[in-house]
Amino acid sequence: MSLFKAREWWSTSCGQEEGFDQASLCVSGLGNSGNEMSMIIIGSHAGTVRVFCPNLPPASEAPSYKPSDLLIEMNLPHPVLQLHVGRFISGSQQFHLAVLHPRSVAIYSLVIRGGNTEHGEQSALVFVYEHQLRRSAYSLVVGPFGGVRGRDFLCVQALDGTLSFYEQESFVFTRQLPNFLLPGPLIFIPSTDAFLTCNSHLHIESYRYQVLADTSEDNSKQLIPDWSLNIGESALDIACVAHSTSEVDIIVLGEHNLFCLRDHGTLKFMCRFEFHPRCFFPYLTVPEGLLMVLIATDTGTLLVQNNTTLRWSAQLPISPVAISRASLQGMDGVIVLLSETGELQCCYLGTEPSLFVAPSIEPKPIDYQEAEKELNYLGTVIRAFNDSSSVLLANTAAERELSISVKPSQHPESRGESEVCFVAVNLSPHSAHAPLTKVQVTVVTRSPLVAEPPSHSIASLSEGYQVASYITVKGAASEFVCSLEVSVIVSYITASGIPRILTSNCQLPLRLVAHPCNPAKEAEIKITLNTSTPEMSLTEIFPEFNSANGGPNILGFLVGSKVVTVIAAKTSTRYRLQSDSILPLALLVKHLIFRLERILKSVEPKASIKVTSSSPLPLDHLFSAIDSHLTCRKHVADLKEELGQLSVQFRAIERRLLTKMKDKKPAPLNQLDTLLNATQVEIISASHRLEQTLQDLENSQWVLGCAVELIHVLLQLSENPSKYTKTFYFAMSPEVIDSDEQGWEDITYASLKHILNTNKKQDPLTLSSSNDPVIDITNMKKIITSVLDVISKSYSTSGIDIEARKPISPIHESEEAEEEPTVPIGSRLAENRGLSAKATHQNKLLPGRLNASAGLMPDTSHIEGNLSKLAVSSPTQNNSEDDILWI
Amino acid sequence: MDPVYHALSLYKKRCFEECVSTCTELLDKNPFDQAVWILKMKALTEQLYVDDLEAEEEGIAEAFMDNETIAESARPGTSLKNPGTSQGGSTQGYRPWTQTGRPVSGVVRPGTQTARPGTMEQALRTPRTSKTARPSTSQSARTIRLGTASMLSEPGGPFIQLSRINLGNYASKPALAKPLFLYILYHENNIRHALQLAVLATQACEFKDWWWKVQLGKCYYSLGLMRESEQQFRSALRQHQCVETFLRLGRVYIRLDQPLSALDVCRTGLEYFPKEVTLLTEIARIFEGLNNMMMSVKYYREIVTEDSTNVEAIACIGMHHFYTDQPEMALRFYRRLLQMGLYNAELFNNLGLCCFYAQQYDMTLSCFQHALSLAKDDDVADIWYNIGLIAIGVGDTRLAGQCLRLAISSDSAHAPAYNNLGVLELRKGRLNEARAFFQAAASLAPYLFEPYFNHSALSHKMGDLQASYIVIQKALEAYPNHIPSQELLRALEKHFTVI
């Protein structure tokens, strides 16, 4: 990541797959030239030594590799591990090349023969002498050991940590390094005449040559380092830079840090890397004498640092394993890079930034008219998507693709204690060529009926297929069943990738929940149905329930533990259902009507029957069901709260215990363990109670469901159905679902309130948005009666006398008046309060009494007044729109 | 060539896989070659090495079972938990805040993502988004990576059976113990074993090796024993000063929620290692966490003079300029990042916004086009949201609505998009829809004050003064110094007293 790029000045590539390493590069002068003019010497693991001397081209030409730049290429029989240049031949001041092979170290000298042809001089490396090694070599160090002048000695570090010293042609001694496991970098520092290495303890250690030489004679003596510094990580490379003859900086490239040490082993500075370094090369600038370090990173960036400050960074063209700095023919400071695969490059730091230019993404120009057309088209598509008509369209298409038939078995089987009904779903796709995928069949029942398994999935459907589910009554609670309807939902993805959903319904047999029994003569609740059908005896209607216990006009059903008696009038087409409990009534009323219709349809397909009922609504039962449901919910909430508190307490004790355990000095537990145990026991008992209460809640949900269902059935059967009946059905759902945050009452309360509000043609703006949880049964009662009144009022317009309804209202007017102040003040506005009080007052007036219109009059005026007030206040509030905050 | 030399050469060239396979061959021939055994261990460790200073995340367990906190309600400006209390910091009005209640940072770091929740219940509830269903757990990223790696290991069982190894044997041999420790810590991620080895080894070297103390501290730190870890780091620092030890000691104090002590430690470190970039970065991050942007940017500037290619510093300075109303300056910083070769959606997004606010409209759209073409699933929602913002800026409400809806379709929990959609609906006069959007935004992001304020203003306008009163209080909870909210509240209170 950098602004600049290292510019390539000269490059070539050496061999193929020869293998190069950090030690394969050596930049130095050979022969007489000394260090004046650098040659680039490269040795590969395949055993080839190459010597390059890049020539500066004439100013007109761009610099590039020319064959004449390669002075020598020589194949040696063994891999070349390392190269060094020094004065290795006694009596000669010339510079020679030392080549380290795994088992030997050889010295070569450069011979240049003059020539008069165009390619000029001819160079060759001539073998001079060789030391055979007893151990596998790792690295080679050269230098004037022991302070000699004009001569360089050799030291070979073997893989097992043995150092072998050679004074030019003669072997001197060997010495084993202490604490050795894996070989690390080894260098020689002339100013202190010491060897420096990083051992496996992650210490940098310095051994004086004198000490090494002395102790070698006496093996019993322990080799003591001159100094040692713990750097805490293994070193990749070490180098030394001499400021003067006395002042030397030792630069250590660690795996994550760069260290600079003084020659007596103290830390001068260090800096931490945010990358993995690969290789480095420290040098001093002339004449300022600043310490600069070139570092190549694994991300292919070259960093030039002065001490810890980054001076330059440039992107490298290759990822190098070795880096060096050369002066080539009067050009100082050329950066020489060698990659693992043998690419050799000489670079310079170009100062012209190579700016990253993001590639352009869309060369295609936009035709704005076309685009606008497309946008408009897509806009219409989006709008059409929200239309409900297209859904219908999709469904009819779905029916063309797949037909479903659902068949419940008519005779429930007995399985253990419970009855089981078998529902078979036949799927027949119309086209065998385009298989439907991810078909899922879900059997939906209303609790306490349970389908097992609840859903089937078919990966791919191309021909007819049947799936089956068993339906049982959960917990054998048959009396709570309020609907025998089962719906089957099939969802699938068509061959063209369009998801579709189909639904199909069926009725389960009554025998699943009911059994014949002795009819009861007297019962608390009675419901009378008037029908327009021809007279039918009950044995015709319920053939499977024929028993000796009743006559043709009286039948008893045992639903769960409750008895329902159905009596047919002898002279008219009226039926009476009676029971002590309201639970099974809804089911039987619905079923009776269903059967009557079925029988009639079988005789006369086009006939329609009209069933009406004028029985009073069992509101008392509904309210008591709501009451018990609310109590259960409150109980559950209390228990949850208790459980929450207990678990908070449990965690607090745990924390205290943890602190005690972590303490250095063991302290007494102060009965914390007992407390922990006790809390756990309490948590468990609370959970058991919660389980029990949840069961109760479920029961109360069923009871409530049955009661609501009955109300709805009776409302539908009322002699003149109101337009609100359906709305009311959706507002007060017989499916009782309680979530954590919202119970059935909350939802119902909100929906009923909405009905009331919209019914009053009130300004929708004044709707209170508060959804406070319903805590009180009285509110619930009041709102249900109000809505029922609205419904019944809508009868009154059609002129039907509903005076009969009056006694069913369980709340007397006086009571209601008292309750008025309990309208939740917090959720209503001050101005609205009077309004809502009026509204309740109006609702309280029973329909049919004409003074209702008198009540309406002040009401409207009030609304108008309210509206004008809003209008007046609106200009001041318009300002706030400007303050609306965008994020 | 000697195969051991070959393996070493591969290790130096960072070809760890080849190195491991070469070592495995060598060990098959001679299973008792300690040097090769160690080399293989080192190669396996390096293969999986993650700079654990940079990949650190605080999970629920650490945050909640934290019994080291000194003060529950810290004094202003001394805790990272409530950065809003510091003096002179930027406010929410200028610089948006993240979920955690910290100002948005210039770069995404592990620590900037997770919350420091007040209670367990809050912790379990808040961080769920459409992307993750579970709250972030402790040590997440690193542990997952290491866990899978050690399972992959190799055929024929793991390299080292930790349960069978006699740690006492190795503890006295530092040459073996150090690589073994790193292997256990980084490759196996078995902190308890590593701790055991470190305890034995530091006893064996008679408490003279600072390296073992740092490692002990690292183990204690990951086990959540902060005080023990602090002790070890301090003891190590007495023996030898090292950048990493300073950083780790600073992290201990951050975990203990004592940012001022952490700053002290880093400053002491700077005395030993002047201008050390990592220490400066740490200081700048702490100041950012404390919501002291001026100091943070000062340190980031110091970093840039020391290391002018530091992406984090450039991005943070750019961000600071952007939110202090100098988009042109911010643009220069972000452009530098682009020139340096950073090429991702976030950068183009920021460039686009800077261009827009610097009135270089011609560049804005092409920047966003780039951003969209580079965007990944995580950030495409934010880019659409910003395009929506541009569309609002140029008055194209139709485009704005579509962009915001696209933002929501790719991230259904994008609260700011909901808020702005609400404002759009409000402009169209659909008040109920607007209110629903504001409510959705507020429930998704209770830390934003805008949805609350808008909701309150709308309720006020609709005459629902009670709701307005309740909601405006929430807005002031999220941003106590918001003047329009305060005014609205005052107006409401006045209204109520009149009634």
TrEMBL record, chain A:
Biological process annotations from GO: cilium assembly
Residue stretches making up the PTHB1 GAE domain: 432-503
Domain PTHB1 N-terminal: 1-353
InterPro entries xrefs: PHTB1_GAE_dom (IPR028074), PHTB1_N_dom (IPR028073), PTHB1 (IPR026511), PTHB1_CtH_dom (IPR055364), PTHB1_hp_dom (IPR055363), PTHB1_pf_dom (IPR055362)
Region called Disordered, residue ranges: 806-825
One Pfam entry name: PTHB1_hp
GO cellular component: BBSome; membrane
PTHB1 hairpin domain location: 616-718
Occurrences of domain PTHB1 C-terminal helix bundle (ranges): 729-791
Residues annotated as domain PTHB1 platform: 509-612
Protein name (database record): Protein PTHB1
Species this chain originates from: Frankliniella fusca
TrEMBL record, chain B:
Compositional bias annotation for Polar residues: 92-102, 127-141
GO biological process terms, semicolon-separated: non-motile cilium assembly
Lineage: Eukaryota, Metazoa, Ecdysozoa, Arthropoda, Hexapoda
CDD domains: TTC8_N
Name of the featured protein: Tetratricopeptide repeat protein 8
Gene Ontology cellular-component terms listed: BBSome; ciliary basal body; non-motile cilium
Keywords: TPR repeat
InterPro entries, per the entry: BBS8, TPR-like_helical_dom_sf, TPR_rpt
Source species, domain of life: Eukaryota
Region described as Disordered: 73-141
Residue ranges of TPR repeats: 345-378, 415-448
